[in-house]
From TrEMBL:
Main location class: mitochondrion
GO molecular-function terms, A-Z: NADH dehydrogenase (ubiquinone) activity
Membrane topology field: Multi-pass membrane protein
Native organism: Morone americana
Protein name: NADH-ubiquinone oxidoreductase chain 3
Its EC number(s): 7.1.1.2
Function field: Core subunit of the mitochondrial membrane respiratory chain NADH dehydrogenase (Complex I) which catalyzes electron transfer from NADH through the respiratory chain, using ubiquinone as an electron acceptor. Essential for the catalytic activity of complex I.
Pfam families (alphabetical): Oxidored_q4 (PF00507)
UniProt keyword terms in alphabetical order: Electron transport, Membrane, Mitochondrion, NAD, Respiratory chain, Translocase, Transmembrane, Transmembrane helix, Transport, Ubiquinone
Lineage, top ranks: Eukaryota, Metazoa, Chordata, Craniata, Vertebrata
Transmembrane segments annotated in the record for this chain: 6-25, 56-76, 88-108
Amino acid sequence: MNLITTMIAIATTLSIVLAIVSFWLPQMTPDHEKLSPYECGFDPLGTARLPFSLRFFLVAILFLLFDLEIALLLPLPWGDQLPAPLTTFTWATIVLALLTLGLAYEWVQGGLEWAE
């Protein structure tokens, strides 16, 4: 048996054993506190389903967008070592300009206003 087959067999066996143990290991006797909506034992006074502002999603999407921008620009110093560093710099500038224009457009349209 070669090394890859051995590693796949060990990983599969370990996964199956852990899945089987995870079904049998936990206690199956839930008590009153565990069955309550809150584990502190108090009954909820109101509904937990309050209306959620979509502005929070806007902040999350902007964070992901600019986090992705950082991930795309991370290899830029290594790209400068290529035979054509001007091409790398041009593409990085285009990405930054596109994101900046999109942010400016959203700002002008009022998409970033928190309170309406």
